[in-house]
Amino acid sequence: xxxxxxxxxxxxxxxxxxxxxxxxxxxxxxxxxxxxxxxxxxxxxxxxxxxxxxxxxxxxxxxxxxxxxxxxxxxxxxxxxxxxxxxxxxxxxxxxxxxxxxxxxxxxxxxxxxxxxxxxxxxxxxxxxxxxxxxxxxxxxxxxxxxxxxxxxxxxxxxxxxxxxxxxxxxxxxxxxxxxxxxxxxxxxxxxxxxxxxxxxxxxxxxxxxxxxxxxxxxxxxxxxxxxxxxxxxxxxxxxxxxxxxxxxxxxxxxxxxxxxxxxxxxxxxxxxxxxxxxxxxxxxxxxxxxxxxxxxxxxxxxxxxxxxxxxxxxxxxxxxxxxxxxxxxxxxxxxxxxxxxxxxxxxxxxxxxxxxxxxxxxxxxxxxxxxxxxxxxxxxxxxxxxxxxxxxxxxxxxxxxxxxxxxxxxxxxxxxxxxxxxxxxxxxxxxxxxxxxxx
Length: 440
Prior knowledge:
Elements: H1 2-15, E1 23-25, E2 28-39, E3 43-54, E4 57-61, E5 64-76, E6 82-95, E7 98-106, E8 133-141, E9 150-161, E10 172-182, E11 185-196, E12 201-214, E13 217-230, E14 242-255, E15 260-269, E16 279-280, H2 295-309, E17 334-346, E18 349-360, H3 367-373, E19 387-399, E20 404-415, E21 429-439
Parallel strand pairs: 14-16
Antiparallel strand pairs: 1-4, 2-3, 2-21, 3-5, 4-5, 5-6, 6-7, 7-8, 8-9, 9-10, 10-11, 11-12, 12-13, 13-14, 14-15, 15-17, 17-18, 18-19, 19-20, 20-21
C-alpha cells in the first residue's frame, strides 16, 4: 500500500508540471572486480563480478526533483547470473518549511557505522554493496534561520531492505536528527525509536558523530548505542523476551601532508559472552563499513555464515533472527587498530599500505557445536581465544582519465589463536583483487 501511494505521487507530480520545465541528469558507474581469496584448506574462492549502477535525476521544477537508482549485478562464471534491482526512487521538494523527501531512499549518517547508504567509493579497501534502503518521509529544516549552522530533521521509516530487514515489513522507526556544521566540520546526533509488533521488538538508538578539520589535520568519530527488547528469535535454549544492550564506535585521524598522508583508525564493537541468556550485547558495524580486506570481510563473514547454515545438522532450521550471528563482513565483538599511509607519487596514482590488528571482546564460539556438545570451541573447532590476528593490505590505483580508474588490491592475513583448528593448525589467507571503475 505504501509503495502504491509513493508511485501515485510520482505520477501526479510528473504530470502536474509542463514538460519544457523538466531537466534530466544522468549519473552512475560501471565496475568490474576480479577476485581471488586463497587458503588451502577452508577458504578458496575465485570469481569475477560486475555492477552497472544507474542514478538518474529528473528535475521537474526549480524546487522539485525525482531521484532513482537501479543496479545490474553480474557474477561471471558457470551459469553467470545477472541480477537487476530497481532499488530506490524518491521525491525531493523544497518547501517553505524546509526540504521534504518522500519515497524509497538511501540512509546515511556519519561514518556509516550504524546506517550506511552503500554509495560511492569511500573506503580504502573493499566495495559497497547493498546499503540501507528505507521507505521514508523526511523533513529537514533550519529552525534558527537559513544562515544558521543548526539543521534538524524529522524522519519516519518503514524498513525496506538492508541488515534491518527482519521477519516482515512491519518494522517502523521514528528518527530525530540534530547537527551543526561550519567551515571546520560538523557535529550532531541521529537518534530514534524502532518498533516491530510481530516480534515484540522495541529499541532506542543514539548515534553521535563529529568531524573537525584544520589545515592538514582532520579528525572524526562516531559512536552508537542501542537499548531495547525483542523476541525476534526463539530456540530451545532461548525463549521469551530478551534485552538488547549494544554499542560500537569508530574514529580516525588523518594528516594530508602532500605526497604522503598518514591515517590511523581505531574502533570497537561490543561482544556477548553468552549467546543464550536474556541479554544480547553483540553489536555489528554496517556491512558496507569496510575495515581491511580479509579478516572481517571474508574470514569472519564466511565462518559465521557456515556456522548458521549448520543448524540443519542438529535437526533445526535457524530462525530469521539468527542472522545476528552472521557478520556479513561487519566489525563485531572486537576492537581494532588500523594504521595506513597513502602515497601519491603522481597526481593520478594512489598507493596505500595499511595494517590491521584486532582482538575479540569475548572469544568467538561455535554456537551450533555448543548446542550439540555443550563444549565451547572456536569457529575452526579449536580452543577459544580473543586473539584474532593481524593483516597487511596494499593497493595501487591509477586514474587513467577523469572518470575511469584501474587498480589492484592485495592482502595477507595471519590468524591469531582464535582461528587455530582442532589439529592445532593456523590457516593464513591471502587475497588479490583487480579493479576497473568507470564513473559517468
